[in-house]
């Protein structure tokens, strides 16, 4: 097992380097003079020389890359071309929102997806199964942004005035404000890493509301997250339901399940105690893979529901040609995704001895 | 899916010895026995017809604004369904610029289908070449190619595409290029895996013994036998490509207005979702239907072509 972990870690290093190199190369693809693209055609030569010097465009490419690597090694992702603010700061401010949304979307997708998959496999070829699988097929086909807009118009317009109405945009109802945890816990004068973590968690409004017992804030934050989480979670839900079904169907056909039935165990107990644990294995990988999709789907979801996370920051960066922000975001997400895959692979090896080479 | 068991038995049998030449015909009838594939093919046939005859079927020029004679954002008006006869007929209503939405959605079918096929075609050609070379050559070439593919796979597809288009500049061509590049690793991996498994077959050894060149081995022996998984992955890939390009266009990175592309239409009109929802419903439905069609066909093809998955 140790050898497997070491080998898997060693494979990750060149891939990580490749990811950084690719993000860097994409950054140099900007056709023409980056200064004129960002500051406009009429920027004077002096302004452009200053701009190019400030962002290092006037140096040899190799040197630019080594500087980039050096900066990355101490967490410097560069600065926004527009506002000159560090990209890392922007990401830390915006990431909690995106993480919060992704967590709820993933929760929705896995719980509902696995349940539907189990029911489908258990009642294979019944009307429930056919309907669920047709629904799953439809679910993977609806674009996130179309579903988001449809949900918004359904719950904010059609159901307006009923108890089912849900807000179509923003994080909190206007007028409601949230007290940062650092203020509440008297940590305003702290500036260490603990404060940074507290601030990060504090920016996840629902968790903040929960931790500080501001129930109205908690409920309001959750209500604002329902529609975005459903829109974002539907595609993963459909995929998870399909994989659960096919995996469980496979396992239910195996000999040890027949043995379990022959022992006289009831259907429910066979499925729950014998089939499910093994059928869940492929799901570990699939759920890990969905996280990448969630993060890129967040760009679309946050744009539609006006949620100020990294996705919306990316959208704003796209419209204002602020490439440094897009580059930083892409890199952080790719590296995060790389490590999630690493964890998935390792946990898979832990859960399934067959994968683990001696 | 229970119906699939019998045809597969037949397929293996036929491909084995008696009528080897009819493999493709057999595959075809296998595909038609899949309910998913039949529904998918029907949907796609309708869409292809709509795309081909878009000029004939659409009542107006998709780019012509009818302002002056009619009001913008007019909701759908269909005479048979009770719309007053003195109003001009617009099955899907008018958009924010006073253009006929029905004509635009029809023309959108043309763009989305073209874009899907071209993008995936590009990815398949490059991916297959890389996969073939990697699988056949082995050694350092293989390691290098496959590691580069691994790097590409680390990125969430849409996000990498966003970064590439943001760098290259927005536009439909650049969006297709980005989505195409991002899709290459899928086909390279599938191709390499097929090459590795086909390569070990006796018939390949036999041809090599008979003096077949490396080129002939690859293109006459290995490639045809590795095609089925590529076809399945490609069909599902078109669904993904259509979705992703629409998403890029929605974000303003793909097709540019006034081009009647579904994603871009929804992106342009998304602020009218509460006042003129027909501008979201119709292109959104068309988009979902297209993706649904390719997904169903891809699933059906997989069930028909891959006997191991039959259940």
Detailed description of the structure:
- The complex is a heterodimer of chains A (358) and B (311).
- Chain A has 358 residues and is mainly alpha-helical.
- Chain A is 73% helix and 0% strand.
- Chain B has 311 residues and is mainly α.
- In chain B, helix 3 crosses helix 5.
- Chain B is elongated.
- The N terminus of chain B is likely disordered.
- At the A-B interface, helix 1, helix 7, helix 11, helix 14 and helix 15 of A face helix 6, helix 7, helix 10, helix 11 and helix 12 of B.
Helix content of chain B: over 70%
Order of helices and strands of chain B: HHHHHHHHHHHH
In terms of DSSP E residues, the strand content of chain B is under 5%
Mean of residue pLDDT values of chain A: 86
Distance between the termini of chain A: 7 Å
Oligomeric composition of the shown chains? heterodimer
DSSP helix fraction of chain A: over 70%
């Amino acid at each position: 097992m140790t050898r497997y972990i070491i080998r898997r870690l060693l494979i990750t290093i060149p891939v990580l380097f490749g990811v950084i190199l690719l993000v860097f190369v994409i950054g140099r693809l900007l056709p023409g003079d980056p200064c004129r693209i960002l500051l406009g055609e009429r920027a004077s030569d002096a302004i452009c020389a200053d701009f190019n010097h400030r962002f290092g465009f006037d140096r040899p490419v190799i040197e630019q890359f080594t500087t980039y690597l050096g900066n990355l090694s101490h967490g410097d992702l560069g600065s926004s071309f527009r506002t000159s603010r560090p990209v890392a700061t922007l990401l830390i401010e915006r990431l909690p929102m995106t993480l919060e949304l992704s967590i709820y979307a993933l929760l929705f997708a896995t719980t509902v997806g696995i349940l539907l998959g189990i029911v489908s496999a258990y009642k294979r070829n019944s009307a429930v199964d056919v309907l669920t699988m047709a629904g799953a097929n439809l679910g993977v086909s609806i674009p996130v942004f179309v579903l988001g807009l449809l949900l918004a118009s359904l719950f904010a317009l059609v159901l307006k005035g009923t108890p089912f109405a849900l807000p179509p945009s923003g994080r909190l109802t206007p007028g409601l404000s949230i007290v940062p945890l650092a203020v509440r816990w008297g940590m305003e004068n702290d500036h260490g890493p603990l404060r940074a973590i507290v601030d990060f968690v504090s920016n996840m409004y629902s968790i903040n509301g929960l931790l500080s017992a501001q129930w109205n804030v908690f409920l309001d934050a959750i209500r604002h997250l329902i529609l975005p989480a459903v829109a974002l979670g539907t595609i993963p839900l459909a995929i998870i339901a399909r994989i659960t079904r096919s995996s469980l169907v496979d396992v239910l056909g195996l000999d040890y399940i027949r043995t379990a039935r022959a022992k006289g165990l009831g259907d429910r107990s066979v499925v729950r105690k014998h089939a499910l644990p093994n059928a869940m294995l492929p799901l570990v990988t699939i759920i890990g893979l969905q996280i990448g999709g969630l993060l890129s789907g967040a760009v679309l979801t946050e744009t539609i529901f006006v949620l100020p996370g990294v996705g919306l920051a990316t959208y704003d960066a796209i419209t204002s040609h602020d490439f440094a922000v897009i580059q930083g975001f892409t890199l952080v997400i790719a590296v995060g995704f790389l490590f999630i895959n690493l964890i998935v692979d390792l946990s898979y090896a832990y859960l399934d001895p067959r994968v683990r080479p001696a | 899916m229970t119906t699939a068991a019998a045809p597969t038995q037949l397929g293996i049998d036929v491909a084995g010895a008696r009528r080897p030449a009819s493999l493709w015909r057999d595959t075809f009838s296998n595909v038609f026995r899949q309910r998913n594939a039949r529904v998918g093919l029907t949907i796609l046939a309708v869409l292809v017809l709509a795309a081909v005859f878009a000029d004939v079927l659409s009542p107006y020029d998709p780019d012509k604004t009818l302002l002056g004679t009619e009001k913008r954002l007019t909701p759908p008006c269909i005479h048979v369904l009770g719309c007053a006869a003195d109003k001009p007929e617009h099955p899907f209503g008018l958009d924010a610029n006073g253009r006929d939405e029905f004509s635009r959605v029809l023309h959108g079918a043309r763009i989305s289908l073209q874009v899907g096929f071209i993008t995936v075609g590009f990815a398949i050609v490059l991916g297959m070449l890389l996969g073939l070379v990697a699988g056949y050559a082995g050694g350092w070439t293989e390691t290098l190619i496959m590691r580069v593919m691994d790097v590409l796979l680390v990125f969430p597809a849409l996000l990498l595409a966003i970064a590439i288009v943001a760098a290259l500049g927005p536009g439909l061509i650049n969006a297709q290029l980005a989505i195409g590049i991002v899709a290459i690793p899928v086909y390279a991996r599938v191709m390499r895996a097929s090459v590795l498994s086909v390569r070990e077959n006796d018939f390949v050894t036999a041809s090599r013994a008979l003096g077949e060149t490396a080129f002939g081995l690859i293109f006459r022996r290995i490639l045809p036998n590795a095609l089925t998984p590529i076809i399945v992955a490609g069909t599902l890939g078109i669904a993904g490509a259509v979705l992703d390009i629409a998403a890029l266009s929605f974000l303003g990175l793909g097709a540019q207005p006034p081009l009647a592309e579904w994603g871009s239409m929804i992106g342009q009109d998304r602020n009218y979702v509460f006042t003129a929802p027909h501008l979201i419903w119709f292109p959104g439905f068309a988009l979902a239907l297209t993706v649904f069609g390719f997904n169903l066909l891809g699933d059906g093809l997989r069930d028909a072509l891959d006997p191991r998955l039959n259940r």
